[in-house]
Amino acid sequence: MDTGRKRPDGVATTDLVLSAYVGTNAEVFPHVLDLHVPRGSRIADVTWGKGAFWRNVPDDAYEVLATDIQTGVDCRDLPYGDGELDCVVLDPPYMEGLFRKSTGNMAGSGSHAAFRSRYSDSKAVPPDADGPKYHDAVIDLYLKAAVEARRVLRDYGVFVVKCQDEVSANRQRLTHVELINAFESDGFYCKDLFVVVRPNRPGVTRLLTQEHARKNHSYFLVFIKRDPAHPKRVRPPKRDRSGA
């Protein structure tokens, strides 16, 4: 018997993109794109490095513009026009120990040695002479890169940011919270957050006393550039069904 009651759309499923995964960046990054960046989008990965994020992304899925400091392009000064891009991917050095004047004083030893090869070909990333130091130098780089990302992104464009919390000078620094709060006041809306838990256990070469839980997770933060004319709107208005 037809009761005239409308059936809800959709189907029951457990095949969902989740907020946390045990795995590598290359395994999680495609989920970020699948959920938030339409196929065919023009994406600038401005800290390309060795392209590790893209290993499991089909070559023809997106128009990818790959640059980093080793190719002569600083993420704080991009060679793109205003509003030219659909998406920007940012993964700068996020350990304050990598901001050193010499490699001998750099962090990234033991189970974190991969960080040295990932960033700047194992070279130190010296902080600005007159700028902030240590963890604040990390945040400063993110904030300056975000200003440039906002410039080159179209309204409602996607800004994917990789980061990790850290302990600096024996103080807990929740980097992902600092960035979310700072970017919110800079014209971005934090739409999503992915937690990446490393599949192997981190270790240290010499432990006296442990005071903080060892970090074995990092984040993909997904931001949307707000339209300055409609700062409270977090997604573009729906198009008229007539095509207007």
TrEMBL record:
Biological processes, Gene Ontology terms: methylation
Keyword Amino-acid biosynthesis in record: no
Keywords: Methyltransferase, Transferase
One GO molecular-function entry: DNA binding
Superkingdom as given in the UniProt entry: Bacteria
Protein name according to UniProt: Site-specific DNA-methyltransferase
Record domain DNA methylase N-4/N-6: where: 86-231
Organism per entry: Amycolatopsis suaedae
InterPro entries documented for this protein: DNA_methylase_N4/N6 (IPR002941), SAM-dependent_MTases_sf (IPR029063)
Protein's UniProt keywords contain Methyltransferase: yes
